[in-house]
């Protein structure tokens, strides 16, 4: 028997599951051990050994190894062994950099895992879908990705889109009844919800019957696994830069070798020197360091509650000029509370805040417990899916915040959702953002049927035919009063939810299209979701950073305006635009005025997409937030799609580049700040590496031009590359944000890595580093061959110290004096480590013949430090 051929009850028996309580934690642990996690096998990653040997695939490293072998054959054993050891050490550094980058990216992948709402030990909870096991009871709602193969046990207008499996893009209506046929394909198994399919409408629950590779899509996915990570635009630009540098380095190296041979130096000595110089000049570690910097920055974002799904988003964040934000939950607390009720021409004040069900109902300062009010509150509970519970002394809701507020309001009147079990939900028309309403058909204990509709007041006032439960005809003057009540609530920043009903006689089975006709308008709920204090501060900070905040909401225009003023979004001349106004605007008209618009109210998902596209047309880099299925097009079309981690659907998350784990606007600001910092740090170590490399190659060229002996021997060149390019460069990638990072205008997305004077800084510092090194060599050499080793040691030390001092200059775009030199403890540690290694090769006797060094005295160090500081101090005062 196949799963679709047996009943839901039989499925529960065969999986040893309880549809009402789910599995126990102990049972889940046993099944996880037996069946494994709910994920299919992936392509094996590169082994640690292969990763290490991959460090030797670089062409220049291979040439150096060949030259080293030749040197050994010619009897230069010490040099050959020393160079070989340095090459291995360099490979180890590259290996650890790449391994750490892979680990970071792997952690990010785990964090990106979709979530599932599952029943465990009688309690609903959200868990990673990878933790699902056969027998788990899973809840589905519109916008979810089905997390495993499920045998459905209950459905309410449930439809799924199964193109990932069947290729058919049209949604499939789901059922719970068993199917008799023996040869049904996936597209005809209507009582099965398949893993990775999308819930497009309705809701339902199902029992897990297959996980991981044992799902229908899992068996296909194993054949199509592709775990390759895409490079970011910045990484591609740097890779292109690396290739250009290789060509330049090869030409300069060839020039150096030919010049040295022409002057009579041994060919093999010049060959090794040339290759060593090329290895030192080419920043082969740059891609790995970029990846490390990106992944470290992304890890910092995670600590600030932002998960980056695509590394390219990190670069784009620094360019954002506009943030289009939802109001509810992002700019506000997302703890909706009913504060007023309008019923039969009377206004009731509701006390209490948040989800705490303590409070009461008052009219004219007197507590009210009228039956009409009680019945109105029941309608709110019956048309809501939210549950209210207490956890760790804190009241919380499971479900939609607006529906949660209605349930909490009913609890304040002593109406518990559990006490309404005698009411049966017969049918539901789910909420739709276009229709702006939802409806449930309920059978009451006396057998009557009531259709309860809740939604936007402007929609329901126009659709209603009657007023009140006694079905008085709804006249124009009644509509005006209702609109006045809506306006009064909206002016207080209250969001309004209207409730209508239609009654049907016992035994009558109404059709779906009848449920929302000839309705009676019952009353209004006025709810408030208070603005987040941290969101207001973040909006002000974003404005200082040249980033405009736009609020987009489905709320009433007066509610939206009131909240926008509280949050300091709306400037005096800023415009508030309603969705109906957008409908009458052409794209050209919208683009012409969009820079003056700050609040969009009563909008649909289609409006959101138009707003994003209009902003992009006039040159903005747009970050767009959203949480629903219908938000996905706007999220995907934006430059930085941002989804909500708490309330967001899986579809919204998949369309996004950034997921907010706390649904908080302040987290967007923090992510933008981190994105700017990451890009700034990448510029820092590009500047440091290239300026140092320019200095190294110029030292050799200056020597050739001035007909001097080689100021650096090959082993010294490689040692400089080892001790200065590795740890200090990585430490720069961990630098904290500069104070001015959120006071600068957004970076243009097409800005080159050398923009804003970085190329000039690299060349000028490189020239000075090379110059002071050759000056140190000439002062100590004085044309005496007996002093050559002494002069080479001085030049070697000057070059290293100049680079290590220069690294502090790279911490700021302004000047070395603009930041506290002790502000980056990682950099201090890296520089001290490099100095210790430098001192070792100068003063440890066994290392001196290997590295061609000799002891230096205090007088030498005075000269070295004075010359080494010149490039950094000179430009520090010039501030260029």
TrEMBL record:
Q: Specify residue ranges for compositional bias: Basic and acidic residues.
A: 18-27
Taking every annotated instance into account, which residue ranges of this chain make up the domain Cation-transporting P-type ATPase N-terminal? Answer: 2-76
The record's subcellular locations are: Cell membrane
Sorted alphabetically, the Gene Ontology BP terms of this entry are: intracellular potassium ion homeostasis; intracellular sodium ion homeostasis; potassium ion import across plasma membrane; proton transmembrane transport; sodium ion export across plasma membrane
Xref: InterPro entries: ATPase_P-typ_cation-transptr_C, ATPase_P-typ_cation-transptr_N, ATPase_P-typ_cyto_dom_N, ATPase_P-typ_P_site, ATPase_P-typ_TM_dom_sf, ATPase_P-typ_transduc_dom_A_sf, ATPase_P-type_domA, Cation_transp_ATPase_P-type
Q: Where are the transmembrane segments?
A: 49-71, 77-96, 244-264, 270-296, 685-707, 713-734, 762-783, 789-810, 822-844, 856-877
Report if keyword Membrane is assigned.
yes
Taxonomic superkingdom: Bacteria
Q: Which PROSITE patterns has this protein been placed in?
A: ATPASE_E1_E2 (PS00154)
Q: Where is this region: Disordered?
A: 1-27
Q: Name one GO cellular component term.
A: plasma membrane
Signal peptide span: none
Q: Which reaction does it catalyse?
A: Ca(2+)(in) + ATP + H2O = Ca(2+)(out) + ADP + phosphate + H(+)
The membrane topology of this protein is:
Multi-pass membrane protein
Q: Does the keyword Phosphoprotein apply?
A: yes
User: Per UniProt, which keywords does this protein have?
Assistant: ATP-binding, Cell membrane, Ion transport, Magnesium, Membrane, Nucleotide-binding, Phosphoprotein, Translocase, Transmembrane, Transmembrane helix, Transport
One term of GO molecular function: P-type sodium:potassium-exchanging transporter activity
Q: Which PANTHER family match?
A: CATION TRANSPORTING ATPASE, SODIUM/POTASSIUM-TRANSPORTING ATPASE SUBUNIT ALPHA
> What is the similarity comment for this entry?
Belongs to the cation transport ATPase (P-type) (TC 3.A.3) family. Type IIA subfamily.
From the Swiss-Prot or TrEMBL record, give the protein name.
Ca2+-transporting ATPase
């Amino acid at each position: 028997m196949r799963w679709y051929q047996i009943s839901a009850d039989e499925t529960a028996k065969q999986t040893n599951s309880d549809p009402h309580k789910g599995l126990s934690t102990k049972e889940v642990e046993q099944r996880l051990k037996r069946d494994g996690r709910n994920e299919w096998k992936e392509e094996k990653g590169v082994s640690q050994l292969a990763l290490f040997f991959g460090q030797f695939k670089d062409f220049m490293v291979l040439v150096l190894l060949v030259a080293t072998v030749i040197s050994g054959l010619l009897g230069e054993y010490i040099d050959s062994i020393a160079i070989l050891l340095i090459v291995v050490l360099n490979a180890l550094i590259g290996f650890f950099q790449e391994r750490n980058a892979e680990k970071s990216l792997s952690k990010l992948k785990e964090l990106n895992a979709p979530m599932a709402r599952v029943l465990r030990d009688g309690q609903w909870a959200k868990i990673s879908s990878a933790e699902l096991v056969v027998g788990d009871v899973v809840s589905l709602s519109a916008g979810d990705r089905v997390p495993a193969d499920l045998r459905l046990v209950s459905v309410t207008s449930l439809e799924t889109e199964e193109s990932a499996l069947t290729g058919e893009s049209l949604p499939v209506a789901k059922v719970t009844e068993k199917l008799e046929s023996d040869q049904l394909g996936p597209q005809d198994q209507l009582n099965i919800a398949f893993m990775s399919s999308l819930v497009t409408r309705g809701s339902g629950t199902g029992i897990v019957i297959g996980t991981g590779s044992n799902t229908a899509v899992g068996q296909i996915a194993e054949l199509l696994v592709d775990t390759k990570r895409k490079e970011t635009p910045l990484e591609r630009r740097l890779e292109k830069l690396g290739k250009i540098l290789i060509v330049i380095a090869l030409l300069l190296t060839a020039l150096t070798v030919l010049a040295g041979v022409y002057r009579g130096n041994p060919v093999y000595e010049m060959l090794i020197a040339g290759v060593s110089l090329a290895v030192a000049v080419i920043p082969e570690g740059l891609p790995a360091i970029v990846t490390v910097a990106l992944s470290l920055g992304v890890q910092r974002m995670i600590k600030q509650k932002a998960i980056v799904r695509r590394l390219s988003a990190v670069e784009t964040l620094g360019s954002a000029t506009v943030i289009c934000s939802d109001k509810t939950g992002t700019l506000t607390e997302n703890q909706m509370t009913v504060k007023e009720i309008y019923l039969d021409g009377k206004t009731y004040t509701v006390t209490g805040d948040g989800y705490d069900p303590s409070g009461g109902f008052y009219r004219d300062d007197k507590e009210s417990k009228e039956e009409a009010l009680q019945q109105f509150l029941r309608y709110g509970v019956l048309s809501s899916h939210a549950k209210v519970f207490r956890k760790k002394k804190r009241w919380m809701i499971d479900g939609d915040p607006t529906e949660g507020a209605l349930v909490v309001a009913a609890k304040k009147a002593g109406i518990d959702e559990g006490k309404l079990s005698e009411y049966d939900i017969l049918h539901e028309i789910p909420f739709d953002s276009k229709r702006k309403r939802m409806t449930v058909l309920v059978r009451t204990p006396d057998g009557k049927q009531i259709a309860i509709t809740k939604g936007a007041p402007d929609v329901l006032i126009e659709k209603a035919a009657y007023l009140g439960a006694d079905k008085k005809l709804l006249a124009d003057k009644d509509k005006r009063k209702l609109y006045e009540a809506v306006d009064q609530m909206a002016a207080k920043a209250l969001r309004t939810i209207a409730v209508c009903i239609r009654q049907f006689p016992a035994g009558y089975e109404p059709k779906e299209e009848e449920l929302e006709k000839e309705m009676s308008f019952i009353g209004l709920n006025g709810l408030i979701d208070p603005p987040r204090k941290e969101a207001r501060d973040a909006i002000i900070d974003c404005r200082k950073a040249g980033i405009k905040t736009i609020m987009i909401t489905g709320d009433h225009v007066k509610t939206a305006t009131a909240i926008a003023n509280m949050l300091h979004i709306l400037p005096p001349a800023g415009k508030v635009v309603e969705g109906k106004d957008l409908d009458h605007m052409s794209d050209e008209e919208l683009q012409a005025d969009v820079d003056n618009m700050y609040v969009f109210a009563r909008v649909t998902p289609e409006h959101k997409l138009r707003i994003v596209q209009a902003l992009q047309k006039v040159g903005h880099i747009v970050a767009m937030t959203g949480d629903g299925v219908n938000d996905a097009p706007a999220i995907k079309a934006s430059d930085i799609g941002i989804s909500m981690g708490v309330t967001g659907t899986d579809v919204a998350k998949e369309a996004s580049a950034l997921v907010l784990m706390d649904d908080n606007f302040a987290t967007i600001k923090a992510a933008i700040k981190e994105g700017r910092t990451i890009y700034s740090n990448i510029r820092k170590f590009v500047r440091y590496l290239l300026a140092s490399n320019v200095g190294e190659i110029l030292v050799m060229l200056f020597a050739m031009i001035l007909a001097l002996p080689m100021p650096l021997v090959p082993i010294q060149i490689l040692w400089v590359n080892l001790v200065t390019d590795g740890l200090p460069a990585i430490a720069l990638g961990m630098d904290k944000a500069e104070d001015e990072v959120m006071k600068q205008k957004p970076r243009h997305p097409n800005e080159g890595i050398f923009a804003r004077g970085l190329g000039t800084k690299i060349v000028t510092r490189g020239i000075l580093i090379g110059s002071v090194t050759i000056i140190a060599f000439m002062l100590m050499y004085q044309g005496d061959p007996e002093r050559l080793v002494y002069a080479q040691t001085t030049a070697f030390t000057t070059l290293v110290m100049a680079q290590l001092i220069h690294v502090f200059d790279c911490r700021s775009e302004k000047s070395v004096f603009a930041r506290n030199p002790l502000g980056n403890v990682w950099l201090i540690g890296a520089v001290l480590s490099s100095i210790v290694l430098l001192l070792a090769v100068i003063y440890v006797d066994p290392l001196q013949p290997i590295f061609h060094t000799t002891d230096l005295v205090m007088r030498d160090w005075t000269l070295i430090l004075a010359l080494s500081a010149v490039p950094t101090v000179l430009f520090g005062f010039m501030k260029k």
